[in-house]
Amino acid sequence: MDRLDGVSVFVQVNDSGNYAAAGRVLGLSASAVGKTIIRLEERVGVRLFHRDNRSIGLTPEGATFLVHCRAIMAELALAEASLSRAQEKPTGRLRVSAPIVSESWNRVFLEFMTSYPEIDLEVSYTNRLVDLIEEGFDVVLRIGPLRDSRLRTRRLGSFSLRLVASPGYLARHGTPKTIDDLAGHACLRNRNVSSSRIDSWPLGPHHIQLSSRLSNKFVADHYAVLLSAVLSGLGIACLPSFWADEHIATGALRVLLADLTQNERAVSALWPAGRDHPARLATFIDFMARHLPTGLR
């Protein structure tokens, strides 16, 4: 078997729970599945599964490898779908869940509608962690780490969080020179809708501890409100680049402690695994991968 066959067998063994069940799905004997896993482990140089007579489970190295293998399989499936449906005109209704985003994201959605008028697009905006399968979405755009193994994923781009304040606020209260200086400022904080916790700021390896020392002068669960507050000179905010950069460019906001708060956040598309996906889904994901990175800056 070639390398991709080994990867697909590895993923199926994890999903099925044992060699025999994986073999039934793949049309192979349990022995052939086991030999494929052994060859794969020899090639990568680590054990991927703990095995005993009754059960099989991923090693820590296997769990890490599984994340990459799922991404490979998702990319391959999407590429095959794109090729096989190249002549198929994308039509029909597409339900999308997206985080509450800035106008730069919205422009990408509108560009998609202009480019593909035969697709009826329904976008549901929420910052909570939706259950794509239970709630009937075709695709979800999600920020941050991904955990749902039932889904295929594709990274669309990335952005950074920026500490910002208005020139007026800084003239009145001074400009922080160090992370410790932030403790003496009015901080405008975001409450995470999914966890109900106030998000920490990107203050280095000890960001949770350092963020706990910051004031909660104003707390909101919508970045549009935080943006209005920081533009009004009420304090310092930590905003995604796609909310802040337009105002940084005009001079309405200034970036603070950029060298001390370097960070990156991924944006990904997620969609159900194991289904025959229509052309409109592959078209949407390809379009977002090409055009959304511009909206993230």
TrEMBL record:
Question: What's the family?
Answer: Belongs to the LysR transcriptional regulatory family.
Which residues belong to any copy of the HTH lysR-type domain?
1-59
- Biological process (GO), any one: DNA-templated transcription
From the Swiss-Prot or TrEMBL record, give the protein name: LysR family transcriptional regulator
Q: State a single Gene Ontology molecular function.
A: sequence-specific DNA binding
What highest taxon heads this organism's lineage? Bacteria
Q: Which UniProt keywords apply?
A: DNA-binding, Transcription, Transcription regulation
> Is Hydrolase found in the keyword set?
no
Q: Is DNA-binding a UniProt keyword of this protein?
A: yes
